[in-house]
Amino acid sequence: MSDVIKFIRIPKNQSKVIYALIIIVMIFSYTNPILLPLNVDLETQAYYNTIVDLPAGKTILLAFAFDSGQWGALGGAAIATLNLLQTKNDKILISPFSSVEGGLMIQRCLGLQKGGYNALGKYGVDWVILPYGPGDETFYAAMMQEPNGMHTAQGNKDYFGTNMENLPIMDNVHSHKDIDLLICIGGAGAGHQVRQFGVPYGIPILVADIAVDWAELKMFIDNGAVKGGIKDAVGSAELEKLIGIPGIATSTVAGLSLNHLLIIGFIVVGNIQYLYGRYKKRGGK
Amino acid sequence: MSFVRSFIPKIVLSAIIVITILSYFLGIVPLSNGVSIVNQYVIIMIAFSLPLGVINLVGRNIKNIQNKRQDWLLDIAMLVSLTVMTVLGIFFGVTNTIYLWLYNNVNIPVGAMVMALTGLYIASAAYRSFRVRNLEGSLLLVSAIIIMLWNAPIGAALFPPILPIGNWFNNYPLTTGNRVIFIGFALGVISLCVRYIFFRENITGEST
What we know:
The complex is a heterodimer of chains A (285) and B (208).
Chain A: H1 2-8, H2 14-31, H3 42-53, E1 59-64, H4 71-86, E2 91-95, H5 102-112, E3 127-129, H6 137-145, H7 149-152, E4 181-185, H8 191-201, E5 205-209, H9 214-222, E6 228-231, H10 232-243, H11 248-281
Parallel strand pairs in A: 1-2, 1-4, 2-3, 4-5, 5-6
Helix pairs in contact in A: 2-11, 3-10, 4-10, 4-11, 6-8, 10-11
Chain B: H1 3-26, H2 29-66, H3 72-92, H4 97-129, H5 135-150, H6 153-158, H7 162-197
Helix pairs in contact in B: 1-2, 2-3, 5-7
């Protein structure tokens, strides 16, 4: 028994060994992806259904409230959502909300969607990019409370500095009354969106968020404040599966499986060592 | 402390809280207009904080470089990156090819890498910390393993009952615990607001 323990024991500079093993597993999982069947969560299905069931011609506010650090978790959800919106005939207002790099992220995702940058239709008619607004929740409040807040909160200009008067899509969009659905990619658990869009004005909300925020998001989905949700890369891969266009999330999830197994392996090895040490201390041989 | 410094801020804060609450629940138009004005002030102040942050960062880094403090070469790299991105963004626009190339090929991989580093630390911490020392530790360990298996497709492939077990964890303990935290947080905010409204909270930093 002691020989087995010694064999599996990770040496003194254990962190380096652990890091090296994770990197090896990561490289292996990306070069030899194990594509396992995905079970679609109810929340992901609800996210998909809400978009698909929305009648044509409605106005969707699509917020990219995430940054480059969350690319691995939410990049797939953003691109998959754009791919899904392409199949519909709605008006899309894309906003970086209060994410400083949201505007750049929007341009990146638009470039990576199926059909390329202009696949959503004609800019200014079918879709538009709104500018960054500082102030988080205060900015959302200004956007929704004002009778013409969708114009004034943005300084009456789009992301590229074009006057909103020259954008036909904005002719019929003035306040919260003109928004039929809010889709938020990122958003730190959906509390802000529920307080500023959902509860006061009854705007249906969909949120894709990282796994750390899932506990909060799940709470809002359960009480009906949020209609559907995407959980991190796994949820993004599920959405890609529903749409039928595998993307970056599907390949990320292949790596996720092996790494989770490796971490569980570390926990098991650590506990065998711990229990064996305790057994020896008590005088066992 | 003078009357102006100690009392006026409390009156302003108290008035803003009362107006905001009444505007939200009663929807009275003049109050809503007042709240809109306050919102605009907040947005303007936050917008000013961005250049303020840049000025502080540049000042601090220049001092570090002048004194050749630890990692001063990294400070130079930071200043160069800041200057390049600012100049490109302001003078050539946010759709400039080089600007977008730098964002897509430098910023995104580096940002994602920093986030991914937490994965390495979590693995190392899991090996060293998740121990069956006592009941609480054992419960934490079992929950962690269940959620990790549930959160990756391989979990269901290896052990199909992990799906209903993981869903139960997700629907009950996780949501319940989070609701408790949220309700506690909300009650805390309400009690703090009540204290602000009745001038019972010190907001000037001065000991009462």
